[in-house]
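Consider the record:
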Amino acid sequence: MQRKKAIVTGGSSGIGRGIVYSLAAEGYDLVFSYRNKKENALKVIADLHQNYPEGYAEALPAELSREGAGTVFFEEAVKCLGGLDLLVNNAGVTILESIFDLTEENMDYLYRLLFRNYVIMMREGASYMAEHNIKGNIINISSVRGISAHPGDLVYGGIKAALNRACKSVALDVAPYGIRVNNILPGATRRFTPEEEELADPAHREKIRFLSQRIPLERYGTPEDIGNAVVFLASDKASYITGISLVIDGGLSLPGLAETAKEAESGWGRTVRDFER
């Protein structure tokens, strides 16, 4: 049976790394991009070669915010793989700025990396699949910030909202070719391995502890949670799903604003009742 082939942008750490590992476990050959920290990318490749020796894995450097970089990376990745069944747009950064502190440099950078590049990669992936009669999948990693507002995320959240909307139009464009396009919207998700987390900024560890108590399912998300969703959406079990934005946040975005001090103090959205036995 022929192995499926996937391209993942930003696959050397965090959510992207979880996606790469999940796809490798599912039998995909993989090429992923990385921006810096080559040692992380090489570690992922070594893990894949050790755990899945029958598979193919390659990491290519790419600064995807730069003009033409996405097209160059895509063409090289397809050449390495010899085909394409799945494109996962994941590469990104989170930069939060109040309207009072907004810099045009960061605004332009986020637009180029998180929207323009995603659209270009979708164009390249869809065109390749349609030309080669491949009924493949394109999956974008967006964010719950695209559906709920937070202070300081007008650009980042606005771009994610635009991506959520763009997914629907692209899904319609490519549906006649049997290509499906979907978005995944992670909420609070761990970016580090347990070993890396021990070395992380104490403020980061405190944020995880604090927020975990307020997530309805009472834990932070993991990269594997997102990887599992990618595997599902790319599978035949999801063959009738296209144009959706799937929220994966443990219920974090469900509650509205706490209406009383008691609700806020108890962890709004996580009220537990004592039942008599």
